[in-house]
């Protein structure tokens, strides 16, 4: 067992290893997605050379996955309410596998784009369901740690993608990038079989009236019988089931919606004040995660380093590996901080660091761009350092907290589809940056682009400071109360966390 500090900071609770195993398996889909993101960074260099595509087509290729992921995430919310969290992860694996096979085959740009679109739908499913599943099998004391695992999986995948660029970059132009993209089909198939060995989310089972199954799973993912009973009682209360009911199965009331029907009306058309603010918080954090420009660095790091003064494909790819390694290290560190330090503090420190790093990167790139003599070694060094610093601050706070926070703040009935809205916004912003960065820096210079991202990060800091109360250590069933107090009440909650 691994000890993790509980929400109050005084009691020590042990991490349940079965719950951890469930979250790890669910997070494997994130590794596959991260791999696709990282490997595409280098693969685009070779794809452009072989298929003779221009920069606009490169931007579309980079961003189309996220446009399709937007629709995939919205579809996944209703799907996971209908067939369950586990089978939704299975569907994500199969869809992504088919997309990878098609991309690996790709005789032309059209087929490559088709494969990327299919993979994008799988990505949308994966990004929506993995954190929700992890949050729903976790106890409050280590929920942040387990819900961070999908983001850690993405960072591992990105690093593996960069390494794959270097490993296969020496193959023939026709073969190299196809192996880079197509090899992701193998782990996708393995995950599809692996997830079927995992249990269903106990919270979803309670919503279906399957109390006996939920009780058995809660006993396995809890550290004591008392903890399992407490969690089951809280879930039954939120689901509208008599807390004293000991039946193994309760036939759902036909007037109650147990498969996600009517949720959109409660989220969008007639939300309660608490749900309205929860939705604003979820959409806002997903918007800012990519609006600060991280995708420009992840996807276009070779171009950024080339603008800074590095020449040669091999050197550019190796410099990009540093981005992936930095991302992995700091996401790994954040998994141990999010339940100790808290979501809010990590978010504010992270965003402040992002602002500083982007300002330095924008300044150095501007100096290099206006320098017409030889290579400015000091400016090149600062560009690399500030890029890695940006990635470090982003991944120690904003990246993992986005997924942890938005997966835990929605009420049980609204969680899957509410979270899917956040993921859809996330993918929309990801696609916007992916598909516009080249055009953006050609219009306002590459330094100007990063100054713009720094300005957006300033807005993000104030948004988080005034609207985000701490959720560390609270049960999923209690968090809605934090958003029920109105602006003045939330301000007091925020102050008490400082």
UniProtKB/TrEMBL annotation:
It is found in: Membrane. Coiled coil: none annotated. GO terms for molecular function: symporter activity. Keywords: Membrane, Sugar transport, Symport, Transmembrane, Transmembrane helix, Transport. Its main location: membrane. It is a multi-pass membrane protein. The keyword Nucleotide-binding does not apply. It holds the Pfam family Sugar_tr. Residues 22-472 form the Major facilitator superfamily (MFS) profile domain. The chain crosses the membrane at residues 15-35, 60-77, 89-107, 113-133, 145-163, 175-196, 277-299, 319-339, 346-370, 376-406, 418-438, 444-468. One of its GO terms (cellular component) is membrane. It comes from the Eukaryota. Belongs to the major facilitator superfamily. Sugar transporter (TC 2.A.1.1) family. This is Major facilitator superfamily (MFS) profile domain-containing protein. It comes from Populus trichocarpa.
């Amino acid at each position: 067992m691994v000890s993790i500090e509980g929400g109050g900071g005084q009691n020590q609770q042990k991490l349940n290893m079965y719950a951890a195993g469930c979250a790890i398996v669910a997070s494997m889909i994130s590794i596959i997605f991260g791999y696709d993101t990282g490997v595409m960074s280098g693969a685009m260099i070779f794809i452009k050379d072989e298929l003779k595509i221009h920069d606009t087509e490169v931007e579309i290729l980079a961003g189309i996955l996220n446009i399709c992921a937007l629709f995939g995430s919205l579809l996944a919310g209703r799907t996971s309410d209908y067939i369950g969290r586990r089978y939704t992860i299975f569907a994500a694996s199969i869809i992504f596998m088919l997309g990878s096979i098609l991309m690996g085959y790709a005789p032309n740009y059209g087929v490559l784009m088709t494969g990327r679109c299919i993979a994008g739908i799988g990505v949308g499913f994966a990004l929506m369901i993995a954190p929700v599943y992890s949050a729903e099998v976790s106890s409050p004391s280590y929920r942040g740690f387990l819900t961070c695992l999908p983001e850690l999986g993405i960072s591992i995948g990105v690093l593996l993608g960069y390494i794959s660029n270097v490993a296969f970059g020496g193959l023939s132009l026709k073969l190299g990038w196809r192996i880079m993209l197509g090899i992701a089909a193998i782990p996708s198939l393995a995950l599809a079989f692996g997830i079927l060995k995992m249990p269903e989310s106990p919270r979803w089972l309670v919503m279906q009236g399957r109390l006996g199954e939920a009780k058995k799973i809660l006993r396995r993912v809890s550290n004591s019988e008392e903890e399992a009973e407490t969690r089951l009682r809280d879930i039954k209360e939120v689901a509208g089931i008599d807390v004293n009911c000991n039946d193994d199965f309760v036939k759902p009331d036909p007037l109650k919606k147990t498969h996600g029907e009517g949720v959109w009306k409660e989220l969008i058309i007639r939300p309660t004040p608490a749900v309205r603010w929860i939705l604003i918080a979820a959409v806002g954090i997903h918007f800012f995660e990519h609006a600060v420009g991280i995708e420009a660095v992840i996807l276009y790091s070779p171009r950024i380093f080339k603008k800074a003064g590095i020449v040669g494909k091999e050197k550019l790819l190796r410099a990009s590996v540093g981005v992936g390694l930095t991302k992995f290290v700091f996401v790994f560190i954040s998994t141990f901080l999010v339940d100790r330090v808290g979501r809010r503090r990590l978010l504010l420190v992270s965003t402040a660091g992002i602002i500083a790093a982007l300002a330095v990167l924008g300044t150095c790139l501007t100096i290099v761009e206006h320098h017409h003599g030889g290579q400015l070694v000091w400016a090149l060094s600062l560009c690399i350092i500030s890029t890695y610093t940006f990635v470090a601050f982003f991944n120690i706070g904003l990246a993992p907290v986005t997924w942890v926070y938005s997966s835990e703040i929605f009420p049980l009935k609204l969680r899957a589809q509410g979270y899917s809205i956040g993921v859809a916004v996330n993918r929309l912003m990801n696609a916007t940056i992916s598909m516009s960065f080249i055009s953006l820096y050609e219009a306002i210079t590459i330094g100007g682009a990063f100054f713009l991202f720094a300005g957006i990060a300033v807005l993000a800091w104030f948004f988080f400071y005034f609207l985000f109360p701490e959720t560390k250590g609270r049960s999923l069933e209690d968090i809605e109360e934090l958003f029920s107090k109105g602006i003045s009440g939330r301000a007091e909650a925020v102050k008490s966390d400082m």
